[in-house]
Amino acid sequence: MKRKAMFLRFVIFFFTFSAGIALVGCSEDDTDFTDDVTEDDDDVDPGKKDDFPGPTYADDYSGIASWQDRAQWNLANVHDPTVEKDGEYFYMYNTDASYGNAHEGNGHFPVRRSTDLVDWEFMGTVFPEAPAWIKDSLNSIRAQMDPPLAPIEDPNYGFWAPHIQKTGDTYRLYYSVVVTNPIVGSDPNTSWTERAFMGLAESTDLSSNNWEDKGVVISSVPDGVESYERDGGDDWSGYFKFNAIDPSFIETPNGEHWLIYGSWHSGIAAVQLNTETGKPNQLNELEDYGKRIAGRGNVDNNRWQGLEAPEIIFNEDTGFYYLFLAYDELSVAYNTRVARSENIEGPYVGIDGANVTEGAEAWPMLTHPYAFDGHPGWVGISHPSVFQDPESDQWFYSSQGRLPEGVSGINASNAIMMGHVRKIEWTSDGWPVVSPQRFADVPQTEITSEDINGTWEVITLEYEYQGIQESSDVVFHEDNTVTGAINGSWSFDESSGILTVNDHELIVDEAWDWEASPRRTTITFTGLNEAGRSLWGKKVN
């Protein structure tokens, strides 16, 4: 299995994004990958809103990827998004990443906004340059090591994974800055890379894009178990106990503030914060850096656990905390898991009752590389922002999606990072599921049993490392039988919007068919099978 450390994640970012610098040979048209749909398919409209003006922006944005074209980006060049609402606008912040490294030299942590989660206006970046405290904190720690290490005069930085959250009248932006220099020497195969830092900035008005930087919150911490020296490129026994990237923040119903963070190394940590400062009260002992709430595999001995990007929400309707996790490497295999607990500190368990805090695999799996017909598919779909619209109470899932490698006509197609926003629905037993189609704000009308009849493309998101799950055809007949890739029977409860197929409950919704040519409205379903794998479907005829 492909692995990644802090420095390896940097290497992945560097090579993936720098591969797009030379845009010679990139497609200049705005193909939406649906040119291979047949003429007969063009005449089919399974939706009921022929005049709905849904989004038309292309998934291949390589022709407008440069910085001077940023006003046209919409959701192009989005990686590790985080979303919060202020007034009429949703605001999205993300990792410094772009096709061809177009962002370089233009500030850090890009921000855009939208009134409908569909069309997004690029607003700039949060910081014009790296905050000075990062270098000062780094070299202060190096001077206190045994033996002391010389300062790094010109550190190399990565600006990753911000998290935006409102508390009271203040918006807190937690952010990650990693120092990618080796701790000693210049070879990352002989030394672990330097530590990561998480900082905090605050604002009372997101529209102003004015931020007060509050400095360091926490940093990666060693526990003395491993040396910072590496025994070659196959040594994955991490030096740091908790890797201080991928922050998320949650305020519990009783007013406690918690920082959830971590990536690979020794798992995911939760640390309680001072409600006034947004920082831990002290960082004197190892336990001050947090308690592990999730791991993968043997959590006592494995220093390389293949999970990251934690985010916790509390659902008042179910009474559970939900811990969303990204599994595996980020460029292709990324997939999203979830576990839940009645307590913020866990233990977190999956749908199968297994203890994720103790290292069990987390199920359900909500996203996975996939492809519907007429599109090369999406990979790298994880590191989600999970947020709720305070007006509608609708939950949403936002992440990046990457195109697969080798898409014809696109140089370094896997470096295309399109922002995805999807609805979250909730099963009758209180588990979240994600829509198979990106959100397009399609008007919702009554769906009838008659609307279910016809041909659907269906995907079961079975776990396959770096594999793409492709759709198969299923026909729903008027006599309530199902044939094709699934055989059996179906029924539809029009009042609840629940489609039952062979005892599987599926949540039906009106949606936008992004793979059709031309794009059009359709209906979709999402749900889970008994093994905790997502079931996705969209009607095509």
Automatic annotation (TrEMBL):
Belongs to the glycosyl hydrolase 43 family. The active site is at D80, E308. GO terms for molecular function: hydrolase activity, hydrolyzing O-glycosyl compounds. Residues 436-537 form the Extracellular endo-alpha-(1->5)-L-arabinanase C-terminal domain. One of its GO terms (biological process) is carbohydrate metabolic process. The keyword Signal applies. The keyword Hydrolase applies. The record marks D246 as: Important for catalytic activity, responsible for pKa modulation of the active site Glu and correct orientation of both the proton donor and substrate. This is Arabinan endo-1 5-alpha-L-arabinosidase. Residues 1-24 form the signal peptide. The lineage of its organism: Bacteria, Pseudomonadati, Bacteroidota, Flavobacteriia, Flavobacteriales. Pathway: Glycan metabolism; L-arabinan degradation. It comes from the Bacteria. Keywords: Glycosidase, Hydrolase, Signal.
